[in-house]
Amino acid sequence: MNTPDSHAESRADSAADLVAAEDVLLFVNAAITATGQREFRSRAVDQQLSLDFLHTYVRVNYRRVYAASLALDINHHNAALIVRRLLETADEASPEERRTEGRLIAARLAALPPQRAYRLFGELRRAKVNNRRTRAIMRDWLAARPDLGHDAVKYRAGLKTVARHIHLPCPEGRGALAEVGAFLFRPGRLPRYEHGTLDAWRRAHYEQGAVAELPFTVAEGFAAKHGMKREVFLKRAAPRMTRLERLRTQEQRVVGDRRPDVDLTVMPLTRLALYVLSLGFEERSGRRAELTGALRAAARRAAARRAAARRAAGAHAGSWGRVHAVLDDSFSSSGSGQKRRRPLAVALACHHLLEVLAAPGAYRGLWTSGARDALLVRPSGPTPLGMRILDALEPGADGTAPDRLVIVSDGWDNAPAGLAGEVLRVWRRRLDPKRRTAAVHVNPVYDAEGFDVRRLAAGVATAGIRDAEDLPALVEIARFAEGRSGPAELYAYLDRQVARFISGEGAVS
After folding, report:
1. What single string gives the DSSP state of each residue in 223-281?
2. What is the CA angle 25-343-480, rounded to 5?
């Protein structure tokens, strides 16, 4: 028999579940967008303090969810923070939690760039985190590295720190591990190395020809030591540069009117958008066909990759029907000195991805500035989101409303202030109460003061975004923020993501 007390307890449990779900979504938004760096409206120290509080709060109150976040598309900065804090507080977890955490940590470390992993291991050593599980995780990660000799040259300090921390056996004599040990701890002991990169490092001290055989970041130091001309060095080093190194040095490698070969069609979408925005208007116009083609090719690849990894999200080309987007190119989209033009690059990349996801000919992108040429957008002016949302909600020529409304903005609606929220509130309550049009706001900027990304209206889901490639997955997460899916569905979703991530099916790109 149900009593008033049992009803009250049920309501309390339900309210607690809703609060927990909101906390989880808030943390996921922060872990996707925040990097502890300066933003347009907040200092780096504010970002760091806000992020530190959120990590502590969620780890203490929702440890299982905190660890499960490693399986989501969070950024590398927060992934490293989560790994560190889980390992530092291993005594707070149950044996079952530690087993799951260990598998999540191993899978996430495999997806981290090696320099971040080495930096994380150094932080663990300085924090004196030296339990058996931590040493085993480090040891397994090192064992999976494809070339420790290369790491010894490029990440020498990091590898040396790890080797000392886990007491890596480096025997005397010959063999790959023996040579790495001699290179790290007994330099100059061997007259030569069998490993090509290690021996190139030895020869580069007195032989200019060996400099080009080294990783680019190491070779730069030797080139300066030998007084090599920059253009000569870059020409020799080009074959061993990474894709991003080629892009960063592209302007320095121009010979006459001939540009160096950089294959833009293989670049990730958001990174490519950042590159396009770094170019002047004249160059963008002159290379219109090349740049637009590269952006569209990157968008098609992103849609295909996400469709394969997350079929449940329906993220394949043409699957989203009629899509109208409001894209923020106001002055605040210029970002900060540490994240230059990042918000605008996300909007530009989303513009091209949404064009692919929409049905053929059924996409319409509206920039807040009124710009009609996406390739030539620049950060300028106020943020009239409300006016652009009104335009986006207008039915098409056939009288059909959009199937999806996507808003890409930092949420600082100021022309006039608050109009966007009021438009969305009235539209959702009076004009579309049955939610025939799915609406989502994706925000690339973390609001340190609010411990979340800034929202426009309660009736429209908001999700943090760092890379446009994650948009389909974030739309899937955003439905939980709308309130149409309950906490049980949210936790079931997280469990599915953890299972897929650990098995390698949903590896973070």
Report:
1. HHHHT--HHHHHHHHGGG--HHHHHHTTGGG-BTTBPPP--GGGS-HHHHHHHHHHS-H
2. 20
- CA 301/CA 500 separation, integer angstroms: 21
- The pair of structure tokens assigned to 125 is 């050593």
Q: Which two tokens stand for residue 169?
A: 């056996």
The DSSP code for 340 is B
**Phi and psi, residue 37, nearest 5°:** -100, 165
Chain Cα centroid distance, residue 52: 19
Of 234, 282, 285, 281, whose CA–CA distance to 262 is shortest? 234
**Residue 302 identity (one-letter amino acid):** A
Question: Closest Cα partner for 397 from 326, 327, 325, 322?
Answer: 322
What is the tens place of the pLDDT at every residue in 310-347?
554 455 677 899 999 999 999 999 999 889 999 999 99
DSSP 6-45: HHHHHHHHHHHHHHHHHHHHHHHHHHHH--SS--SSS-HH
pTM of the model: 0.87
Backbone angles phi, psi at 461, to 5 degrees: -65, 140
Length, in residues, of the chain: 509
Q: Token pair of 442, please?
A: 């994706």
HEC sequence for 344-409 = HHHHHHHHHHHHHHCCCCCEEEEECCCCCCHHHCCCCCCCCHHHHHHHHHCCCCCCCCCCEEEEEC
Average pLDDT (279-308) is 89
Distance between CA atoms of 206 and 203, rounded to whole angstroms?
Answer: 6
> pLDDT for 123-159, tens place per residue?
999 999 988 889 999 999 999 999 999 999 999 999 9
Residue 335, token pair as written in the block: 């970002």
Residue 340: strand pairing partners: 335
Rounded CA separation 189/180 (Å): 12
93 and 131 in contact (C-beta within 8 Å)? no
Identity of the residue numbered 99: R
Distant-in-sequence, close-in-space partners of 358: CB < 8 Å, separation ≥ 6: 318, 320, 321, 322, 323
